[in-house]
């Protein structure tokens, strides 16, 4: 087979080219007519500015820039500004004494001492301080532990019998009131 150099010219069997037209006669290609909305139009539909006194309407979909916590709070805490220190009336000596007597830590430490266990230095120091405060309040109020214990013991059989009779009378009176 013989080699033939390829050319760009077409022969008579090839596709025919359109005849050349003058530049002035050519039609100017127009831009394709747009149908529908532009791409990304969902986000810009509500953002059409209005001329009402120079103020544009704010897009309602744009929210607050305040950061939002993504985790649930573990404890419910009131804001510090909202919580005010309420001034309480100072406790009376009777209230202080009742508070000391009902202190669970004091009761637990006293129970440990009664069992014969030794306390740590910090616990012992705290216990001594509380007991001193308890004694001071009792002395201030005129309460004596020994006097209360002596009231329960009757030295005379007649006193014991009189107290029993008084209790019996109170019981009868209560039963009559109940009816």
From TrEMBL:
Locate the compositionally biased regions of type Polar residues. 36-53
InterPro entries for this protein: YihI
Q: Which UniProt keywords are given for this protein, alphabetically ordered?
A: GTPase activation, Ribosome biogenesis
| Record's compositionally biased regions (Basic and acidic residues) | 22-35
Chain segments carrying region Disordered: 1-75
**Subunit structure and binding partners:** Interacts with Der.
Protein function: A GTPase-activating protein (GAP) that modifies Der/EngA GTPase function. May play a role in ribosome biogenesis.
Task: Identify its protein family.
Answer: Belongs to the YihI family.
- The identity of this protein, by name, is Der GTPase-activating protein YihI
Query: In which organism is this protein found?
Result: Shewanella electrica
- Write the gene name: yihI
